[in-house]
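$ run holo --ligand "adenosine-5'-diphosphate" --emit tokens
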Amino acid sequence: MAIISNDDHIGPEQENAFPLDEQQSFAPSENNMEIVVLVDAKGIITYVSPSISSLLVCASEAIVGCHARDLLHPDDFEPALWEGSSIEQAVPESQEGEYRLRHKDGSWHWFEGKSTNLLAVPGVGAIVCTFRTISQQKLAPRLHWSEIYTSKHFVQFYENDAFLIDSVSSFLGTGLETGDACVVIASQEHLLMLEEQLRANGVDLLHAGAQDKYIACEVNTALALFMVDGLPGPERFSKAIGGMIARAVQRGRHVRVFGEMVAQLWVEGKQDAAVRLEELWNNLYHNPYTFSLFCAYPMHCFAGEIYQEQFSRICQQHSHVIPDESYTSLAQIDERLRAISLLQQKASSLAAEIVERKEAESQLKISEDRYRRLFETSKDGLLIVDADTHLITDVNSSVTELLGYTREQLLGDDLGHSGMFQSQEISQAAWLEALEQPSSRYDALPLQTRDGQIRYVEFVSNRYRANGHEVIQCSLRDVSERKELDKRKDEFISMASHELKTPVTSLKGFLNLVQRRSIKQGDEKVLHYLARMDIQINKLTALINDLLDLSRMQTGKLIYREEAFLMDELVREIVANIQETTQTHRLVLEGQTLATVFGDRERIGQVLINLLNNAIKYSPQADTVLMRMANGRQKILVSVQDFGIGIAKDHHLRIFERFYQVTEPVEKTYPGLGIGLYISSEIVRRHGGLMWVESRKGEGATFHFTLPLTDEGKRLASL
Ligand code: ADP
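-- output --
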């Protein structure tokens, strides 16, 4: 036997002075896992075994003479036990506990300590303490299943089945070897794997089963024995499962249980039932059996912040919690400390990430709510369609009000085949365009309502990607009333211009009659007034004709004559006529086309008149209007340039719309109806040409138009 050796206190000759059991208890071992310390009645350390140098990295000489308080952690140091005159009475015969001792680097290391008061023993006169290191055990779970049988209820988390089967087979195998009985309630798959492993380890399961030393049951079969309305029934549980344990416990055998019922409930989403079952297991333990229970949960079941509380409830139900293999498989303390640090770092970054995500989620929620409100309250009808399936995925109430369908009728319906787009060709074309183009727009698209009426909508479509899907957003603005008003206005213009035409024509006739008479009578004064009247009547006639043309264009009733005519001749004729009506401007003609144009000579003349009159009207400060003619291979180009007030870019397209007039202060002073350019551009368009303007505000304007050449014209141009 190795003996405490301290020359001052205990000599070899005093060995027999130790009572036998004390000697056995405190005989310092030779291994490096234990430190033996002797303390005198004042708490001063009188001896330390050399193992302190490897366990706490300090020389025993440095410790001897120090107070016990210097070695022990303040929380573990109880002065009453170690100090003062009453020490002999205060320290009990033998005391055990866990203590932290100071390492040389200042850290605290855990030890299992046992102190025995031998102050009164002659020749010893010391409190004898042995400290066995447990730091490693404190940090690491016990992995030796032969030692764990004293645990009541522990839980193993795991990531893969192989690790679980390894742990459980070791737990059960050790038990069966040492005479324990085992009860296994596991999934069919785990049962098969487990039994295969046990057999591979040399366990005779048949024999064990015959003696009720090994009882196995499939998890769902076991659950069916006691589950009532989704929760475990306490009485049924203790009868069914307690019965199994009672069979195993015969002849006072210790029982090891592996159960997956809680895990099964958890996986099925019955978390409350699982926690309840854990409680029942704990109750069963107390009454009337003693057994070790091994529960196992797959770690992925707890992946998610929402499981945080339930996870800690599960842990609370167990006397031991064993982390999954990513931690358990690390053998070295240093590796484990690193793993813990990494986990802590991960946990704190996850916590930070969660905060950030919550913030982002709440921002997203705000913007989603805002979008939803805008979507729902928009006066425009909004439809969202999946571009691949053409099915309507969302629709607001304005659409349902506009078209008379319910939301339910529209959601999931194919928009292209729904009645609303099917009734008119133009609507079908608009739908195809919406499918094919990134965006499209129609001013007044006829859509059919559920009860067969036609509503006109301003239709805008936009195609974009959302959540990895191509979607088409369609917005529908009801313009039926505007359309109706436009129709009435057109009807009124048509009617009014027809009504005006007749009296003005008669006025013109009578005027000509009076003019002829006055010429005969030689009444110069009357002739002068009649000429002025004629000019005004001509203006009035031109206005009425414009209005009539407009109405005819609207209804598609404007008739174009088709004849071949010489363009240069027409231009010269018109320029000469207009020149006669103006004293303020000189019309300058440049170039020629030598072209024959096929079309309505009078209507093309009307275009030229309109452009020249505008050029004169909108350049009151200037004195020249230029007219240029050019001939290309396929078409001719005619341009009318003035040096007047010009047109800002914003209006360049719109001046060709019906009734559009630039309404800035300067333009307001010029008379007109705003239909001349509309009619002119329509005439050019009907002849297969184009009209456009080049201008800047205050810098004059140049109106251009093209006309295609006849085949003969093209042939001549190519010579
Ligand atoms: P209006 O009868 O008003 O002249 P038009 O259709 O001929 O109608 O022209 C439309 C508008 O375009 C005019 O109101 C005017 O504002 C602008 N405009 C047309 N020609 C010219 C021009 N040569 N210079 C400046 N503005 C012009």
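-- notes --
The first strand starts at residue 34 and ends at 39.
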